[in-house]
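Entry 14. Ran structure prediction on the chain below.
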Amino acid sequence: MSKRADYITWDEYFMGVALLSGRRSKDPHTQVGACIVNSQNKIVGAGYNGLPIGCSDEDFPWEKQGEFLNTKYPYVCHAELNAILNNIGMDLSGCRIYTALFPCNECSKAIIQSGIKEVIYLSDKYDGTDVSLASKRMLDTAGVSYRKVEVKRKNIELSFDEKDV
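Output, structure tokens:
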């Protein structure tokens, strides 16, 4: 008997972990996840967009529009920043980060400062905006590479039914 042929690639696996992490987000509009991986293909950090520890999801706004302090923007930590802050306590130099959405300029600063050397993203829906242009300019200048993930499949279904294990 030969090995199974339809197993997922490393990129599909780690992007899947990032997407699954995003499912923890309480944000009703955008659920972004991120997964940091070292050179041995070991996960060393994961995160999703959400409020800082100690800030209740019930006490802060989730609106996208309105007066700044009445929107989610001044309060939510992005998935990439949370993955960096939630890392297992190791130096992230040379690691790569998988993220559902191309990182904003603020997250790109944290990515660069942490020593991460590659960004793999699923969506670049804000391409061409000032935030995206600033992000790419900093990543390029700092020598951090980035690429859109290449996948062989559109989706992966997970089951929590014990009969499927």
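The mean pLDDT is 96. Will compare against last week's run tomorrow.
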